[in-house]
Amino acid sequence: MPARRYQLSYSIDRKRELIAHFDNFGLSGRKFRAMYEIPRNTWKSWKKQRAKFMTTRRNAKHKTLGGQGAKIIIPFQHDLLTFMKDVRRDEHILTSMHMINFMKTHYYDWLTAYMSDKVDPYKSILRLCQSFTHQHRFYEASKC
């Protein structure tokens, strides 16, 4: 059994250095990767993102270019968040049903489109509401 290889992470600055070093060296990609022990797929993705690494204004100590976080699929997230805060401000209990009723009232077309291709639409919309509340730190939201 081969020895376990540890996954390395490189800062943006280090990636820039290595790419510039590769350009100046004139070696083949394979020899260069072997010399610096860079995995093949890592090198391929760096070459693909070369322009972004060189032009980014992001702090060079970061490991990534940013933007890998979860994408919110609710297009009216600000309205929903305002509704949730208003309910809490009025000292009412916020439930997933309240959120679903808000969506039915104000965003019915989006809600029907979202639920149309789901195996269990009710569970899907409940899960969506619960994950949305957790992302925005509304931990006490009830299920029904």
Keywords:
single chain; 144 residues; mainly alpha; 2 domains; 0% strand; elongated
Q: What is the percent of helical residues?
A: 55-70%
Major sheet = none
| Category from helices, strands and their pairing | mainly alpha
Query: Which quaternary structure do these chains form?
Result: single chain
Quote the beta fraction. under 5%
Mean pLDDT: 88
Order of H and E elements: HHHHHHHH
Total discrete domains: 2
Shape descriptor: elongated
> Gyration radius, to the nearest Å?
24 Å
Low-pLDDT segments:
none
How many E strands? 0
Please report the distance between the alpha carbons of the first and last residues: 52 Å
Q: Can you tell me about this structure?
A:
- The protein is mainly α.
- It has two domains: 44 residues; 59 residues, no CATH class.
- It is built from eight helices and no strands.
- The mean pLDDT is 88.
Topology:
Blueprint (H helix, E strand, L loop, with lengths): L11 H14 L3 H8 L3 H9 L1 H6 L21 H13 L6 H11 L1 H9 L4 H15 L9
Task: Put the structure in a nutshell.
Helix content is 59%, strand content 0%. It is built from eight helices and no strands.
